[in-house]
Amino acid sequence: MSTPDSQVSRASGRAGRRSIDVSEELFAPVAPDVELCYQTFGDPTDDPLLLVMGLSGPMTWWDEELCEQLAEAGFHVIRYDNRDTGRSSRLRARVRRDHLVRAFTTGRGPAPYTMSDLAADAVGLLDHLGIDSAHVVGISMGGMIAQTVAIEHPARVRSLTSIMSTTGRRTVGWQSPTLLPRLIAPRRRGVDSFIEDSLVTWAMIGSPAYPNDPEVLRTRALETFERGVSSSGVMRQIMAILTQPDRTGRLRSLRLPALVLHGLDDRMVHVSGGRATAAAIPGAELVLVDGMGHDLPPALFATFVEAIRRTADRA
């Protein structure tokens, strides 16, 4: 396993915790015209853990505190910006509105790239780091990517954790109909508009039992904007989601430790998606969290870390 070119040591804020090595943000070429921005936490000799974020989310949506807790649990944590997100490469293909509507209603359409392409990006990052296999954790669209990596590149996945995601079957894991206009609406320009739009979105999809601090949301939205946002990139990712295949049959072929974690109050991906995923993967553990929506509340970090570590230890 190669060690990232540049690392800094970050002391933990809690007494008794060791300092965590945190790399600078680095770049990995993973496909023609695609370069991913990534960052690592922890000891490179620990168990590699690849974190895959969801729709439009940069890697910084994996909270640093969560990454550090995972590193303390014995993982070498790798987070990255998917293509069309953050500081990773932007593609140029445009998605027409009629193509988007067709994909939403039929599951078919000319997608600029597929879930398999996004999975290949993840594998390409592991190749760049010299990592033969890793524990893979994905959230929402990232869960779809993680499942696809496990299906199409099984030797590269030690364990699979799918968080608030679904199988690709159109009869499960649906979105609340009230959310679609929000997802496809043209975004207003400027940082202030972006921040206000973000506050509205997280109010709609966040965890009712674990409300977000508006100032924390503002800070994260500003950071997201400064890393780079792309409305056309979001449309390309949505097309990959809408045209993904039903993975149910292929998930049944997996033979690896798997955890499926889902909030019971998720409006973005209905909990039926998590239940269907766990039912499809032999031996998968299903953890349902009351009051959790489509986010990762800090109050639940310890729960997430313990469950991911428990799943990895089954490998």
UniProtKB/TrEMBL annotation:
A molecular function (GO) held by this record is: triacylglycerol lipase activity
> Which organism encodes this protein?
uncultured Nocardioides sp
Annotated GO biological processes are: glycerolipid catabolic process
What keyword terms does UniProt attach to this protein? Answer: Hydrolase
Pfam families attached to this UniProt entry: Abhydrolase_1
| Taxonomic superkingdom | Bacteria
Q: Which InterPro entries match?
A: AB_hydrolase, AB_hydrolase_1, AB_hydrolase_fold
Enumerate the spans annotated as AB hydrolase-1 domain: 48-295
Can you name this protein? Hydrolase, alpha/beta fold family
> Which PANTHER family does this one have?
AB HYDROLASE-1 DOMAIN-CONTAINING PROTEIN, HYDROLASE, ALPHA/BETA FOLD FAMILY PROTEIN
